[in-house]
Design brief:
The protein is an alpha+beta fold. The chain has three helices and two strands. Strands 1-2 form a two-stranded antiparallel ribbon.
Protein backbone atom coordinates (compact mmCIF):
# COMPACT_ATOMS: atom_id res chain seq x y z
CA UNK A 1 0.00 0.00 0.00
CA UNK A 2 1.24 3.45 -0.86
CA UNK A 3 1.34 5.97 1.88
CA UNK A 4 0.55 9.63 1.43
CA UNK A 5 3.49 11.93 0.79
CA UNK A 6 4.65 13.95 3.77
CA UNK A 7 3.19 17.44 4.13
CA UNK A 8 5.30 20.39 3.06
CA UNK A 9 7.65 21.32 5.85
CA UNK A 10 10.59 23.57 6.41
CA UNK A 11 13.65 22.30 8.21
CA UNK A 12 14.62 25.83 9.21
CA UNK A 13 11.71 27.98 10.40
CA UNK A 14 14.04 31.00 10.42
CA UNK A 15 14.81 30.58 6.71
CA UNK A 16 11.21 29.94 5.71
CA UNK A 17 9.81 32.90 7.60
CA UNK A 18 12.47 35.50 6.79
CA UNK A 19 10.70 38.68 5.72
CA UNK A 20 7.27 37.09 6.23
CA UNK A 21 4.60 37.22 8.88
CA UNK A 22 4.02 33.76 10.29
CA UNK A 23 2.53 31.94 13.23
CA UNK A 24 3.51 28.77 15.04
CA UNK A 25 2.97 26.98 18.32
CA UNK A 26 4.21 28.83 21.40
CA UNK A 27 7.18 26.51 21.90
CA UNK A 28 8.53 27.29 18.40
CA UNK A 29 7.81 31.04 18.32
CA UNK A 30 11.40 31.99 19.10
CA UNK A 31 12.60 30.21 15.96
CA UNK A 32 10.77 32.51 13.55
CA UNK A 33 12.98 35.03 11.79
CA UNK A 34 12.73 38.80 11.92
CA UNK A 35 10.30 38.81 14.82
CA UNK A 36 7.64 37.87 12.28
CA UNK A 37 5.72 35.78 14.79
CA UNK A 38 2.04 36.57 15.03
CA UNK A 39 -0.49 35.07 17.43
CA UNK A 40 -3.24 34.67 14.82
CA UNK A 41 -4.52 31.12 14.32
CA UNK A 42 -3.66 31.19 10.59
CA UNK A 43 -1.43 33.68 8.77
CA UNK A 44 -1.17 34.11 4.99
CA UNK A 45 1.73 36.20 3.70
CA UNK A 46 2.25 35.82 -0.03
CA UNK A 47 2.70 32.13 -0.78
CA UNK A 48 3.52 31.25 2.84
CA UNK A 49 0.61 29.92 4.92
CA UNK A 50 1.19 28.98 8.55
CA UNK A 51 -0.99 27.90 11.46
CA UNK A 52 -0.54 27.56 15.20
CA UNK A 53 -1.41 23.93 15.91
CA UNK A 54 -3.29 20.82 14.79
CA UNK A 55 -6.39 22.47 16.26
CA UNK A 56 -6.29 25.04 13.45
CA UNK A 57 -6.18 22.46 10.64
CA UNK A 58 -9.61 23.32 9.22
CA UNK A 59 -8.80 27.04 9.12
CA UNK A 60 -5.44 26.23 7.54
CA UNK A 61 -7.10 24.04 4.88
CA UNK A 62 -9.62 26.78 4.09
CA UNK A 63 -6.76 29.28 3.69
CA UNK A 64 -4.94 26.95 1.28
CA UNK A 65 -8.11 26.43 -0.79
CA UNK A 66 -8.78 30.17 -0.81
CA UNK A 67 -5.24 30.90 -2.00
CA UNK A 68 -5.39 28.28 -4.75
CA UNK A 69 -9.05 28.37 -5.83
CA UNK A 70 -10.52 31.62 -4.53
CA UNK A 71 -12.64 32.83 -1.64
CA UNK A 72 -15.95 31.52 -3.01
CA UNK A 73 -14.63 27.97 -3.32
CA UNK A 74 -13.10 28.11 0.17
CA UNK A 75 -16.43 29.27 1.59
CA UNK A 76 -18.32 26.49 -0.23
CA UNK A 77 -15.89 23.92 1.13
CA UNK A 78 -16.12 25.27 4.68
CA UNK A 79 -19.93 25.37 4.56
CA UNK A 80 -20.08 21.84 3.11
CA UNK A 81 -17.95 20.57 5.99
CA UNK A 82 -20.14 22.48 8.47
CA UNK A 83 -17.07 24.50 9.42
CA UNK A 84 -19.00 27.71 8.64
CA UNK A 85 -22.71 28.16 8.93
Amino acid sequence: ARSAPPPPTCSSPMACSRGKKATTCASMAGLLADGGECENRVVVDGNVITSRSPGTAMEYAAAVVEKMMGRDEARRLAEGLLFLS
